[in-house]
Amino acid sequence: MDRTIGSRRQLPAIVPRVTAWLVVLLVWQAVAAQIDPRFLATPTAVARAFVELLAAGDLHEALASSARSLVFGFAMAIGVGVTVGLVMGRYRLAGAFLDPYVNALFPTPRIAFLPLVVLWFGLGLQAKVIVVFMMSVFPVLINTYVGARDVSRSLDEVGRAFCAPERTILARIFLPATLPFITSGVRLGLGQAIGGMVVAEILLAFGGLGSLILAYARSFRPDYLFATILVLVILGVGLTLLLQLVERRLSRWKPIDSAVS
Amino acid sequence: MTAARQRPGPTGLAELGRRRARRELVSSGTLWWVRVGSVLLALSVWELVGRSVNPLFLPPPSRVVAGMVESFGPELSPAIGSSLGTFLLGYGLSALIGIPVGLAMGRSRLVEHSLDTFVYALYVVPTVAFVPLLVLWLGFGLTAKIIIVISVAVFPIIINCFVGAKEVSVSLLEVGRASMAGRRKIFLSIVMPATLPFILAGLRLSIARALTGMVVAELFTAIGGLGGLLMIYSNQLRTDLAFGPVIVLMAMGIGFTALLRFIETRVVAWKETERAQK
Fold it and tell me: Are B138 and B234 contained in the same domain?
């Protein structure tokens, strides 16, 4: 798609991308080499730290702790978010009953509840799971709710035209049609879940990758800090790819025209 | 809804049939009452439960309100002022940086390809992970907090502006080109207005993120602002006072989002007509 006036030969995308990365890495290396290594680490130092981190023991324990709270919290968020979202979208009364809370809590910085959560649940795995849950449940819920509401409206007439009982409508029409909304909600929720997990770990200093980051900052080891962030990124990307795989498998049935979504 | 009203002729049974088909067994007026009733019910339950359990756990709304009034002058208002300052500065700078960058990415393939990996990479990273590092570099002051807010809030803005600028209708651009308009004119008169809904959507989406960044920065530094106050109150086990900052933050989130939605509806109304004419 030519968006410039007049013709201009287009560079293949990879060229600026690679160039930009090379420039950034070189500048970073040059600048960081001049600065006190306690404050800024060079890319080479980070790479070295990353390898050492993978070999040593600290990382595995932290990763396991993070993964535990992430999986439990996010699974709960999906369970609750999808169920409530579907019910709210399908039954308007339920939707009206619950949506003041959803609309009030969604734009709220839910992280503000963290001190209260700690007050109620103490400083343990429970608190972390709850924090992950409260950060990620709303994207899932809202996407499911909005999708379910739209689907209900358009597909209901089809179901009624065929005189289908409610249960059939639910299983054969409603659920499959809401699936794309659910998956996009889950995808958005994952980012929030990881963010919630990291924040909880950094603020509560209770295990996990976040507390490693905190410890490395406090002991002036930015190379290990960046390496840990790198691990976090890989975790996030890995989980996102996993989700995309699941999404693709579930959407196999999808019709050629996705006019419904 | 308006179309139905404009339709002439008898609407009695036909309308009812249509409503049944759409499952509108309950009118939208009733739904509003359900919403109001739900909130009133929740508040009453909260009040009753709060009175019977340990006030450390769940202070009833009456206590919370009393606490808010009590702390308003000396502690709550300066905290609100400080937080608002951090938020507005951080959010404003995010918009100032994000909108031009996003638009540039959308209009220029070169800029797009140079920056897109970084933008998406940083969008995916939980930027809160940089908080300890930023505090290490910049200390506990306003600068660190603003940078933290920018680091979380700028990316949805960039991405939305980018997508919006990229998707400008080709037919509109052709009109511009056919009229021999210069590049600048095309940008100002066609691209900018067409992208406006996306810009506003990006701005709306980053409100919650900016607020979250602000709260995280304040919770971490435990100094100043509503987050700092929250930390202090919870450490003192004054749960009744702790609800105060939470409620204010909720109000800020709802308020700013509503403001942006209002602006958006103003713009989208125009946009919808354009879309209908395509």
Answer: yes
Same domain, residue pair B12 and B76: no
- Give the pair of three-digit tokens for residue A190: 């994952």
Task: Test A202 with B242 for CB contact under 8 angstroms.
Answer: no
B212·A157 Cβ contact <8 A: no
The answer to whether B22 and A154 have CB atoms below 8 angstroms apart is no
Pull the structure tokens for residue B38: 């739900």
Instruction: Tell if the pTM clears 0.90, that is, is over it.
Output: no
CATH number at residue B216: 1.10.3720.10
Nearest CA in chain B to A239: B124
* One domain for residues B38 and B164: no
Q: Domain check: are B38 and B67 in the same one? A: no
Q: Is residue B204 part of a domain?
A: yes
Residue B54 maps to a domain: no
Q: Between these two residues, A29 and B168, which has the higher pLDDT value?
A: A29
Q: For the residues A20-34, what does the mean pLDDT come to?
A: 88
State whether B216 and A111 contact (CB < 8 Å).
yes
Residue B105 included in any domain: yes
Calpha distance A76→A130 (Å, rounded)? 9
Ordered structural domains, chain A, with CATH? 40-251 (1.10.3720.10)
B140 Cβ under 8 Å from any chain A Cβ: no
The pLDDT value recorded for residue B274 is: 47
Pull the structure tokens for residue B269.
């109304």
Mean pLDDT of residues grouped by 10 in chain B (278 residues)?
47 59 62 87 88 81 84 84 92 94 87 86 85 86 91 91 81 76 75 84 90 91 84 86 90 92 79 47
pLDDT at B30: 78
- Quote the CA–CA distance of A34 and A90 in Å, as a whole number: 61
pLDDT of A133 strictly over 90: yes
- Which range marks the domain in which residue B94 is found? 60-277
Q: Which residues of B touch A109 (CB under 8 A)?
A: 208, 211-212, 214-215, 249, 253
A155-A160-A165-A169 Cα dihedral, nearest 10 degrees: -10
Contact present, A196 and A73 (Cβ < 8 Å): yes
- B223-264 pLDDT per residue, tens: 778 888 888 888 888 888 888 899 999 999 999 999 998 888
Structural domains of chain B, count: 2
Instruction: Using DSSP, state whether A207 is helix, strand or coil.
Output: coil
* % chain A with pLDDT above 70: 89
- Taking a C-beta distance cutoff of 8 angstroms, is the pair A95, B32 a contact? no
Residues B21 and B68 occupy one common structural domain: no
Let me know if residue B65 belongs to a domain: yes
Option in B107, B226, B257 nearest A3 (CB) = B107
- Do B94 and B43 share a structural domain? no
Task: Scan residues 211-230 of A and list those with Cβ closer than 8 Å to B.
Answer: 213-214, 216-218, 220, 222, 225, 228-229
> Is B186 found in the same domain as B218?
yes
